[in-house]
Amino acid sequence: MDVAKLDLMLRYILAVAGEEECGNRELGPLQLIKYVYIGDLAYAELHQGRTFTEAPWRFYHFGPWTEEVYRRIEPVAEQLGANRRPIVSSRFENDRVRYSFADEHLLERLDDQIPTEVARAIRHAIRRFGSDTSELLHYVYTTPPMLRAAPGEPLEFANEPDRAEEEESGAATAEHETTQGRDGATVGTAPKSKTRQKRELEALRERVRMRLQQAKQQKRPATPPPRYDEIFFEGVNWLNNLDRGEIKTSRGEAVFSSDIWKSRGRRDPGVP
């Protein structure tokens, strides 16, 4: 983990929050960790899955977590001179304090030091969620690294980890296309360029999205209206005259297979 980059991001998050309205200026450890995760996620999307802080993120309870980030929050807040307000009521064990900090000039300097994609993601997330822990947790829980992992597992930020390795391995495993000379004879094969492979993959994804969209737009046949005849009203009377005794309560425990964490239903909302 790069402690200097982590401290930079934590300072930036607190400074950005300091520009918000009073109700969203204070952030707790749980919120700070999630905003660091959002910054790392944005950076990883443009750097082949490598995060900005290189923190060891993992699936913990209902969101991404790393003890290393948590331990740096108090020292960074103290170095900044941030306001520290203890709170009594919190349903999260490691979330019993709120930090606030505002320094417009420092924020301008930090803007020049932090990557653009990280700054943009953090600013957007803080404007959207502020100090709303529930909405923030729901958002990070549904991000791709979380949906690909099971509880306790490390988070993988690369969308296609195998693809990056194959591209670096060279032409030995790359697909080839046939080339021809001026006389029409085959003169050899050449590996497809990365740009062309990317275009073909994007085209395939677009076709899949279009098919899924078309399937959702297909109208189901309309349900015929009920027949309000003698049989219908006799059935209604019979239901109304049923013995409405108390419903018996029971206790039990629902057990789900651990396979649900890696099921397509978590990653693809279109899968029933």
What this model shows, in words?
With 272 residues, the chain is mostly helical. Helix content is 49%, strand content 9%. The chain is built from twelve helices and six strands. The chain has helices spanning 3-17, 22-25, 29-45, 67-80, 104-113, 116-129, 133-141, 144-147, 161-168, 194-217, 230-240, 264-267; strands at 58-60, 63-65, 83-86, 97-100, 176-180, 186-191. The strands form three sheets. A two-stranded antiparallel ribbon has the order 1-2. A hairpin with a 5-residue loop joins β5 (176-180) and β6 (186-191).
Feature tags:
272 residues; mainly alpha; two-stranded antiparallel ribbon; two-stranded antiparallel sheet; 12 helices
Discrete helix count? 12
Q: For this entry, what is the oligomeric state of its chains?
A: single chain
Helix % is: 40-55%
Order of helices and strands: HHHEEHEEHHHHHEEHHH
The helix-and-strand class reads mainly alpha
Distance between the termini: 39 Å
What is the beta-strand fraction? 5-15%
Number of strands: 6
How would you state the average pLDDT, rounded? 80
Query: Which regions are unreliable across 5 or more consecutive residues at pLDDT < 50?
Result: 161-167, 169-190
Strand order of the largest sheet: 1-2
Q: Largest sheet, described in full?
A: 2 strands, antiparallel
| Gyration radius over CA | 27 Å
Short description:
By secondary structure, this protein is mostly helical. The chain has helices at 3-17, 22-25, 29-45, 67-80, 104-113, 116-129, 133-141, 144-147, 161-168, 194-217, 230-240, 264-267, and strands at 58-60, 63-65, 83-86, 97-100, 176-180, 186-191.
